[in-house]
Amino acid sequence: MRKILVAEDEQNIREFVVxxxxxxxxxxxxxxxxxxxxxxxxxxxxxFDMAILDIMMPGSMDGLAVCKELRRRSxxxxxxxxTAKTQEMDKVTGLMMGADDxxxxxxxxxxxxxxxxxxxxxxxxxxxxxxxNFSEELRSGAFVLNLRNRxxxxxxxxxxxxxxxxxxxxxxxxxxxxxxxxxDILKHVWGSSYVGEEKIVDVNIRRxxxxxxxxxxxxxxxxxxWGIGYRWxx
Length: 234
Known about the structure:
By secondary structure, the protein is α/β, with parallel strands linked by helices. The chain has eight helices and twelve strands.
């Protein structure tokens, strides 16, 4: 069963999310706020494939704090933030803290399930790559991307990547030297049915540059191709 932790303090929205997830074949565990979410996460020993987190929740931990803590504990869990239209900066902050995607309220059941399905596919891919019979590496200069254990190193030193960042790097290195359109990156990583905005690509590129570039403000590896998108140079 595909297990999802749903943290939302508004009961009507939480029940709406849970009902539609169950209809789509997911197991949903409800949390009324951030503190409750972490309690349930610990109680289950971290046995969740994904988490859906409302940004604004009462208590000592809002959705952003829970996102940051979950990502600190796990690179494999899928995280989707629920946001309001007025929370533009919070969307970016959530992505910078390791969220995979966000859904803006109000949203339809079909949009919610499509976003969840897209993130879950990455979670499942991560699990498959850990199987013993899967072994492959991509090398590019000082960088090595191990597709079996989902690790990434620079000059032999590990660099922690989220699932989204890992998939972007796999796409980059597999197409080294080629300009890649933002929309192509979006479709490759988030899926062709993704209905969000292209800026989610830019936010993740910013995160990657902070992790792998010697000077993120003057990137040598993830280069901006003006009017098109980005290019990977080793």
